[in-house]
Target: Sec-independent protein translocase protein TatB
Amino acid sequence: MIDIGLSKMALIGAVALVVIGPEKLPRVARTVGTLLGKAQRYVADVKAEVNRSMELDELRKMKEGVESAARDVENTIRTEAGSFEQDWNQAVSGLDSSADGSGAASVSSLDGGGVIPSYRHPGKNWRLKRGAVPRWYKARAGVRTHVQSGAARVARFRPRKSH
Model:
């Protein structure tokens, strides 16, 4: 850059005073100041735009990296899922072929002799829902199993008078 010191600025001011004159010098100085301000703002805008474009390029590179990592993860999950599905199908087909040929030998080896029951949701069957929690747990937790009125509950826990 141009090295401008205090002595050079004083020299430029003296020459401007002689050339322009004392009447027009303040107006010219204001005009020069506004032009320099506009130039500085323009340079700052250009710098900001360059920085934004550089950050945008970095974000694009980062996005591509994340997308490639996601694709790699997806591919590994698909291959693992495919190998698991093949193993599962082989195991199920092996169970079906041994169950057809030799009775229930493979099923008895799985659970000790019985057929594995499938889960059936109780739906609206209140007996199944009621039987799902053991009575000892309900008694310990204080769950009411019988409907009682407030007066009956008070009478039940009122101490009895002996005559």
